[in-house]
Design brief:
The complex is a heterodimer of chains A (154) and B (552). Helix content of chain A is 64%, strand content 8%. Chain A is globular and about 55 Å long. Chain A starts with a helix and ends with a helix. With 552 residues, chain B is mainly α. Chain B has one domain. In chain B, strands 1-2 form a two-stranded antiparallel ribbon. Chain B starts with 10 loop residues before the first helix and ends in a 5-residue tail after the last helix. At the A-B interface, helix 4 of A face helix 1 of B. Chain B: One of its GO terms (molecular function) is NADH dehydrogenase (ubiquinone) activity. Chain B: InterPro entries: CPA3_Na-H_Antiporter_D (IPR050586), NADH_UbQ_OxRdtase (IPR003918), ND/Mrp_TM (IPR001750).
């Protein structure tokens, strides 16, 4: 898999995917997009990295850790991190749904704030749905990457 | 944008969502506490207790108290119906929630006991709570698409439980189970999409309102009959009615016994609930001539609502279930095999009165039919739940559940035998146990419908029940003690759970009056489409168009 073409393409494509994923995530509350689709897109970037540079590349080259190649994938540190991301996302999503209860509103009620005169953007809308979307994003990325790395290692 | 309803939420409304939030929060907390087994167990217990309290509060404050409203709704995210997701707790939901909470707690206590290596089984409890979440959500939702979502939540957790032990036969069972349910989900989605295309709404109350007066909304309800048939097949798969029963024996054998108790006691009932809710609360009001000639037989099914067709189909499926389940159970060689087949047959017994209710024109008989189905379902949940849990207890004690390796358990562990005996008798329908009233009401409904073939069928089914119950009892509890039984040491907590459920079966039978009143309220709620629509009071979309987005 690791031809020069593949590696060069991956270097160019992966950052673009991350930027698109980020923009889909931010505008999700009032335009097509959102936490789920941004999460899936982020995972495809990871899939490309895995395909091009191998499963241990992230830990060895990006995080600078020593990797024991014979280790069971489910006990791998990075897979444990994916699990944590999944649990964290679920907590954020459920927690953001519970916050409105403190204000006497129903579960999952959302609101938004508008900022005027922000540099570059001029007009910025921050929706509370973003917190829920962040949770969804983390659940999707954590869940899919766990599957990808555990099944990919087998 | 639709303005938000600035009405403060009442206590009744908050109660509606309480069990769901409790079980959701417990699931997430147990997931987070994956590294600390003791804390996780403590949170699980607290969640289970809180869940039981929340369900009991719904029962009392919404349904049973003298000044109870009978129905309460909750608009998730403050979006008014039919745009947002509506949660509705009425008698029917409350009755089934109570049933599921009972077996859920029993299965939960049992789980705590049979999972010694708590740290290795770190995903068991989150999954358990997610399974309960799916079941709870399915009972409470008032939105068809949301029902689909809760079905999926429930299925995701049950997929993993079927494959839980990780052996080849578990993987095989899980593969079939997943494949079948993916297909069923696709069909469900197809039906939901079709209903949306036909009626323009998926809110159940709005749907009922539109189908009752299609002309006022400019819709043609014709396709709804076929779409309801699609949905019926999906719910029949969940309930395990013939011809969709084939997944049950393998899946029930593969899942851990305490989860099988939950699958038989709770997720099966979700199928039954969905059939009752959609047929009677939502689709019953549609005035629509139905005439279908069954090829080869010359019988014409006709009526003035989709229910006539639904009832006929349900009759055939239920009759076949009773025979297939009963005959299959007689010949099985393991405890869980007998009970899995018995489950198929018992769901037939639950579906027969529903079919009678669907085909009859008399409101009284319709009410009786639903009531009989609910009481029978309650008995099935308690008795079959107990029996599956006893499979777990027998396995813990003897290491096997094959009938050939068992024998003489009654002398080895009298308390275990007593619990098993009570459940088996209740299944057969001996007074004063809960099963007697279930069977009595089902026979009563069939007798009032004046259908002799159905009576004969019920009689044959009951005889088969006696046959397999006696055979199982004789093989495993009476006779000479087998080597496996001689060394058996039943776990005292497990046996205590079984005895608790046996006491519940006895209590339902002896103090039947309040249970009957509860089931009566549930049946009334299932049939009272108008009260359901009034409680949800969906906004009229047409009025929004003309006034530019006002909300009444």
């Amino acid at each position: 898999m690791t031809t020069v073409i593949m590696r060069t393409t991956a270097r160019a494509v992966v950052p673009i995917i991350f930027v698109v994923a980020a923009s889909l995530f931010v505008e999700g509350h009032n335009l097509p997009g959102g936490g789920f689709i941004a999460g899936v897109l982020t995972t495809t970037a990871f899939a490309i990295i895995y395909l091009t540079f191998g499963l241990d590349f992230l830990e060895r080259a990006v995080l600078g850790r020593d990797v024991d190649p014979g280790k069971e994938p489910a006990r791998d540190r990075i897979v444990v991190a994916y699990h944590r991301l999944f649990a964290f996302g679920l907590t954020v999503a459920v927690g953001s749904g519970l916050v409105p209860l403190l204000f006497g509103r129903p579960f999952l009620t959302q609101t938004f704030v508008e900022f005027e005169g922000v540099p570059i953007y001029h007009h910025l809308e921050v929706a509370s749905a973003l917190a829920f979307d962040l949770g969804v994003y983390c659940v999707v990325v954590g869940g899919l990457l766990t599957i990808l790395s555990v099944v990919g290692a087998e | 944008m639709i303005p938000m309803a600035a009405v403060p939420i009442g206590t009744d409304a908050q109660l509606v969502i309480a069990p769901m939030l409790i079980v959701l929060a417990t699931a997430v907390a147990t997931l987070l506490l994956g590294q600390r087994p003791r804390a996780r167990a403590a949170v699980s217990v607290a969640g289970a207790v809180a869940y039981a309290i929340a369900v009991a509060a719904i029962d009392w404050y919404i349904v049973l108290a003298p000044d109870a409203p009978g129905i309460a709704t909750y608009q998730v995210g403050d979006w008014p119906a039919p745009f947002g997701i509506t949660l509705v707790a009425d008698g029917l939901s409350a009755f089934l929630l109570t049933m599921v909470a009972t077996i859920g707690i029993a299965s939960f206590v049992f789980s705590m006991r049979v999972l010694p290596e708590l740290d290795r089984r770190s995903y068991y409890f989150p999954l358990f709570h997610f399974l309960m979440l799916g079941v709870t959500g399915a009972f409470l939702t008032g939105d068809l698409f949301n029902l689909f979502v809760w079905f999926e939540v429930m299925l995701m957790a049950s997929y993993i439980f079927v494959a839980y032990d990780g052996g080849p036969q578990h993987t095989r069972a899980a593969f079939w189970y997943v494949a079948l349910n993916l297909l069923a989900s696709a069909v469900f989605l197809l039906g939901v999409g079709g209903i949306y295309a036909t009626t323009g709404t998926l809110n159940m109350a709005d749907l009922a309102q539109r189908l009752a007066e299609p002309a006022a909304y400019g819709i043609d309800p014709g396709p709804v009959v076929g779409l309801l048939a699609l949905l019926l097949s999906v719910f029949a798969i969940k309930a395990g009615l013939v011809p969709f029963q084939f997944w049950i024996p393998t899946a029930y054998r593969a899942a851990p016994p305490q989860v099988t108790a939950l699958l038989a006691g709770a997720t099966k009932k979700v199928g039954i609930y969905a059939i009752i809710r959609l047929s009677f609360t939502v689709f019953a009001g549609a005035q629509l001539g139905v005439a279908l000639e069954i090829p080869g037989v010359g019988v014409v099914v006709s009526g003035d609502s989709p229910l006539a067709f639904m009832g006929a189909a349900l009759f055939v499926m239920a009759a076949a279930s009773i025979l297939v389940g009963g005959l299959g159970a007689v010949g099985r060689d393991s405890l869980e095999g007998v009970f899995a087949y018995s489950s198929i047959g018992q769901v037939g017994f639950i579906a027969i009165p529903v079919a009678i209710a669907a085909t009859t024109a008399s409101p009284d008989l319709r009410h009786l039919g639903i009531l009989a189905a609910l009481i029978y379902a309650l008995n099935h949940t308690l008795a079959k739940g107990l029996l599956f849990l006893s499979v777990g207890a027998v396995r813990t004690a003897t290491g096997t559940s094959r009938l050939a390796d068992l024998g003489g358990l009654a002398r080895r562990s009298p308390p275990l035998a007593i619990a098993f005996f009570v459940a088996a008798l209740s299944l057969v329908g001996i007074p004063p146990l809960s099963g007697f009233f279930g069977k009595f009401l089902v026979f009563d409904a069939a007798a009032r419908a004046e259908t002799v073939p159905v009576l004969v069928l019920l009689l044959v089914g009951s005889l088969l029940t006696i046959a397999y119950a006696t055979r199982t009892w004789n093989r495993s509890f009476w006779g000479v003690q087998s080597p496996a039984v001689e060394d058996a040491t039943p776990d005292s907590v497990q046996v205590a759970v079984l005895l608790g459920l046996a006491a519940a079966i006895l209590a339902v039978g002896v103090g039947f009056e309040p249970v009957y009143r509860f089931a009566d309220a549930a049946a009334t709620a299932a049939l009272d489409s108008e009260a359901y629509v009034d409680a949800v009071s969906p906004t009229d979309i047409e009025s929004l168009d003309s006034s530019g987005g006002g909300h009444s």
